[in-house]
Amino acid sequence: MVKELLRSHSSVRIYDGEQLSKETVVDLIETAQMAASSHFVQAYSVVWVTDEAKKEQLGLLSGNPRQYETSGAAFVFCVDFKRLQAAGKLEGVDIVADSAENVLVGVADVALFAQNFVVAAEAEGYGICYIGGVRNKPEEISDLLGLPDYVFPLFGLTIGVPARRNEVKPRLPVGAVLHENTYDENYDEQLHAFNATMENYYSSRSSNRKIDNWTKQMADFLVEQRRPHIKDFLAKKGFTWQ
Questions:
Q1: 3-state class of 157 per DSSP?
Q2: By three-state DSSP, how is residue 144 classified?
């Protein structure tokens, strides 16, 4: 059942090293391409990193070397308006890529495309992990992968046969994310309940047990601006948020 598959997701951070064939990768990409795309722009590209030296460097730059070392395949998913620029040239026009709206469109396209890829991979028994750490060093990773203007890395993704699977992590209660007709700002009861759920999960899971809860994690995570270099990096790539 598709719902059972979706409800069983957990990130995999250690793989057995078995490599994916090109046939498998192409099949997963073709499946991912059937995701919805705003106005059919398909503003995504994927770099499959097969060069071992580049893979090692990518792992170091993204802060996840162990994942890349053991993965069966390693990717960087990118927002891509370069191809759309080429499409415009074929029609004799210069497209307008430099807008906040187009950045949002590209991010949404990549996310939908990647999630199709992930679901297809997990349906075949593979494990995956998204790696936002590529945004720690986006300029260096762009240089490493030869990404031109109007293309930027959004996240990495590793895939492979899991060496170990983690327990499924609980999610916020439905009442905290589903609003009917109007937005309800009263979260206190739901957040206290979710904290209790997460404290039980962290203290009882099979590895890396700890005492923690969700609101403390989020407060620590968002107490200051994260990755302030992103705005200037996007400007260098041609996105100045006009």
A1: strand
A2: helix
